[in-house]
Design goal:
about 130 residues, mainly alpha, Multidrug-efflux Transporter Regulator, Chain: A, Domain 2, two-stranded antiparallel ribbon
């Protein structure tokens, strides 16, 4: 059994992160000692590590909660998990395309900007003011 501080240290997170995940329903409420101290089991550490791994792969906390629910469901299939992963890939591709568009637009604006212009004539600032 682990205290919240020990669990946090083992997972490499702040202890407030654990409290936050409990409030969001990602981690179950821990058992308590007769004195009222929280005690976490090895399964809680595994679940926390799962959450952190899913976050590193771009899943939101809401999506992670869905994955956790699938993980413990008796009727869930790998197909459902795969669909969630494919949807995440679609969203990542969409974000990459948007970031590439932004990069291209900023690059073009930067090319028009010359150091000699006073700020009142800055093409970048002018473009932002005109964009709606």
């Amino acid at each position: 059994m682990f205290s919240r501080g020990q669990l946090a240290a083992l997972a490499g997170v702040n202890s407030e992160t654990i409290r936050y995940y409990e409030r969001k329903g990602l981690l179950p409420k821990p058992q308590r000692t007769p004195a009222g101290y929280r005690q976490y089991a090895p399964n809680d550490l595994k679940r926390l590590q799962f959450i952190l791994a899913a976050k590193r792969h771009g899943f939101t906390l809401a999506e992670i909660k869905e994955l956790l629910e699938l993980r413990v469901s008796d009727s869930a299939t790998c197909r459902q998990v795969r669909a969630k992963a494919q949807n995440k890939i679609f969203l990542i591709d969409k974000k990459i395309n948007e970031l590439e568009r932004i990069k291209k637009a900023l690059s073009l604006l930067s090319q028009r900007c010359h150091n000699k212009y006073p700020v009142e004539e800055c093409p970048i600032l002018d473009a932002f003011e005109q964009e709606q």
